[in-house]
Amino acid sequence: MSSLTAEVLDPATRPTAADFPALDRPPVIWEDDRWWRFTERTDLHETRYLGVYEQGSLVALAPLLVTRDGGGLLFYDAPKMVGDLNAFGDPERLPELGRARWEELAAALPDARRDQYPSVALSVFGSHHGIVHATGRTGAEQREVLAELPRLLDDAARTLGCRSNALLYVTDEQAEAIGPAAEALGHTPAVLGAESVMRLEAADWDTYLSGLTSKKRMRTNRELRQYAEAGFRTVIREGPDALSDAITDLQVGLRAKYGLPGGRPRVQRDFDAIRETVGDSILVISAELDGETVGFCLYLRSGDAVYGRTAGYDDDRAKGVYFVLTYYESIRWCLANGVRDIWYGLAAYDAKKLRGCDLEQRQGWFRFTGSGHETLTETIRLQSTGEDCRLRSLGPNSTTSQGD
Questions:
Q1: How far apart are CA 192 and CA 343, in angstroms?
Q2: Do 342 and 195 touch, CB atoms closer than 8 A?
């Protein structure tokens, strides 16, 4: 029997970086106390924390995102994720019987989802698991905590009155401890996609280019030449002031293009919160044309890594800008400034792998207890199979287990 216990904490009582040094400028930005303060400002989820204790000492801490109804952000609202291919999954890759069953289940999903709220996810914005271990903990001690997380999350869900819970975006390495324990308790496993990471081993841009195949080197030089000939100029800005009005305009346009709610007030609120919490980690790489910003990538820097947060482009004026900014100009700046990893996030795997990213699989476990839970469980299994097929289709060695 494990001696580990847990307590659900609210933001006002959770330890800060001063109390829990592992939160003080860690290598992963999503585990930073400052980023957690950003997450706490969301109005789409209630933020809580799972404190894990051993003999009264705090040994691990993880964010909990509580959704009272179906209005949470898709990637952290467990019932909403089920059956939504914007979250993960590719049913077209299923065998014929699997595709047919997928269609049958779709009709029952809306009613089945409704009875799974409130819901709680152990995760943090950035599509990250969010688990932070106390400094000085050994690998064996960390694995013991991971193996107990499914049980402790179940207990937390009951404390919060939740009918469903999920442990999301777990690395392969962590899954070795979490998976058997979660499945023994009846949690349903799922492949949620893969984190795309560009590992930069070259000393500088010229060395990086020389290491590409001749075909990739020719394409890179051609696209950079076209970018310059079209009149684009790359501008680098760091710090809170990098989030200018022009960047806000492009982000508003991007959200409108994809039918996302909130408009300018939502974007302005998010950008203000980023400035006020992780402002000194902001890196914006933008393209200007005739003195106007027509495209940008927003990263957050932590140590020798940068983490992609969002991007935006003027569809009419920024032709050919996306790949140049996201990859070439980002890589060029990172190599010149001591950055060795670029974390691009989930999705768009073909383009990212083509440009040299490692794809690191992310897994999750779901538990539904409300009426219709069988429908959700069967759907999530099919959804996971489709996502797994998608990742495998990218070719051998397309995913790794390097973890975080």
A1: 17
A2: no
β-sheet bridge partners, residue 366 = 166, 188
- Find residue 120's DSSP bridge partners: 66, 165
Q: What amino acid is encoded at 169 in this protein?
A: Y
pLDDT tens-digit series, residues 271-317? 999 999 999 999 999 999 999 999 999 999 999 999 999 999 998 99
The H-or-E segment that residue 109 falls in is helix 109-114
- Assessment of whether the complete model's pTM goes beyond 0.90: yes
What pLDDT digit, counting tens, does each position of 216-257 carry? 999 999 999 999 999 999 999 999 999 999 999 999 988 888
Longest CA–CA span in the chain (Å) reads 67
E strands, 25-145, in order = 46-54, 57-67, 119-122, 132-133
CB count within 10 Å of CB 176 equals: 15
Element (H, E) at 341: strand 341-345
Q: Kindly report the backbone phi and psi dihedral angles of residue 328, in degrees, each rounded to the nearest multiple of 5, phi listed first.
A: -60, -55
| Structure token pair of residue 28 | 């992963």
Collapse the DSSP code of 319 into the 3-class scheme (helix H, G, I; strand E, B; otherwise coil) and give the result. Answer: coil
In the chain, helix, strand, coil percent, each to 5? 45, 25, 30
Tokens 């950079």 belong to 224
Can you list the residues of the chain whose pLDDT is less than 50?
397-404
